[in-house]
Amino acid sequence: MTSSAVPVIEGRKISKHFGKVVALENVDIAIWPDEIVGLVGDNGAGKSTLVQILSGSLSPSSGEIYMDGQRVVFHSPIEARSKGIETVYQDLSLALDLSVSANIFLGRELKRKGILGMFGWLDQRQMNVKAKEELEKLKITIGDITSLCESLSGGQRQAVAVARAIAWGTRVVLMDEPTAALGVEEQKKVADLILEVRKHGIPVLLISHNLPQVHALADRIVVLRRGHVVANVKKEDSTIEDIVAWITGAAQAVA
Amino acid sequence: MAQLGQDDPKTEVQNVRQQAIGGHAIAAALPKLTLGALVERIGDYWTLGVLILVIIVFGFTAPDFYTQANWLATSVYSTEIMLLALGQTFVIVTGGIDLSDGAVLGFSSMAGALVMEHMLHLRGISSVWIIVAGFAAGIAAGTTAGFVNGLLITKLRLAPFIVTLGMLGMAGGAIDLLHGGREIIDMPSQVSAIGNTVIGGWFPIPVLVTAFFCVVTWLLLSKTTFGRHVYAIGSNPTAARRAGINIDRHLIAVYVISGFLAAVSGLLVMARFNDASPIAGANDELGAIAAVVIGGASLFGGRGTIQGAIIGTLLISLLDTGLVLANVQPFWQQVAIGAIIILAVFLDQVRLRLKER
What is the pTM of this model? Predict the structure, then answer.
């Protein structure tokens, strides 16, 4: 990939126990600049627990998170976000009754300058302009930035969620099943979008059940099985059949 | 079906329509044919159309409809529900409901009147201070009731329907407890002046006060981050929380706004009649909820505007006074309002069903 000395984000010896249930055990994961990492595994393998820990929704039982080599501790998703970790949730987290631009700026609205701003007066025009720029940056075409998200197709909604994620000086994007709800045509558009995000120098952690898609998009693939990392390989060094075997435990991999 | 359709263009259209109901792809390809697209296009404006229609029809059927007297009567009459509907709009946009605002209206006016009555008996206090203290007490009573609503809903995680139904009972009971179920008419004479002075022949003080709050709430809901977050909470609470919006704080604020405006309404009613009645505000919540829903708000949250609530309130008030002027039994107003509510909610559901596609 690149020759950067440290990963953008790194989890070291992450464990998470829910009572007696071990969701994750001594998991090491690192995401380097300019790479798309595919995170795969069966249901209950610990994928979403790991993502929730990296995005600040859950605290690990033990283990540490580092960003640019510095130790960080997140008490909430908001803290993680302020450090540049954006999550695109499977449900997209869009307010469908609000406009595209309102969703992109949700929780981070631009206010007018001066006294009006002190009353929380929205600078709607500025937000529309900026939102449009963000969408164009990712080559996303949505006719009217002021139309309600409700009126968008599934792929367009996904695109808005991704655009929102990378609009904020983002260091890394975590994407949870971004194409699960989409048709074939729209899946392809979202795949292009993920590649476009990497072009902007933002690494992506891609969680997906769609192995052919992960294999096509990812530079590196991490396989979780029963809370352990059982494989961590460059795409070139693996086939889809290998990955299936690692996921199901039919084969042992060299991590 | 295909065979029939080949020759007969009418059947063809019917077929397409039938398929459109079942098949999403075709529905999307032919947006102009679907009910949903029509609903979407007419959108928030149909009630405005009905309002204008009502104004025109009453102009023909009720000879006194376009008179200064009717304007004064109707506009003052509408303020009571209007203020409640403004607060109710905030609540309904969050996906909640405030069943207590009618009772809180009565509770606030009774609390305010009680303070004034006591101060009058003390003698020697200027009536300005008595009025200031009385109105402040009324506002405090309504705002506190709203705050308690918000606190119970957010901290105990109870449904707004249940909490405000409980508050309806408690505030209703408190009205009678405060003064033994009797009205209070002992208050400074200037109170009545506030309620009944008409400025420039056309603008009663209650109407001006209400207009002021219409503008303030409109700005608050449509132009500020607070309003934007209120919509976000009603539309998708999970998304709002992930975006860093403090949902509890916003919900409490929304119920406080509703309680505050109910208090303002209660004090204006008291001022108009120079009387704090134990039945003031009873059942007003139904009118306010109806006005908001008629104005295009969704009871599922995320949708609704102050403009809509204003239109809805005016429609209800005009039907009331207009039917009297037209010598129709005013009970028809209730029938008409009921029908309009059902139609409004039906259109909202059609819209929501289409959203699921």
Answer: 0.87
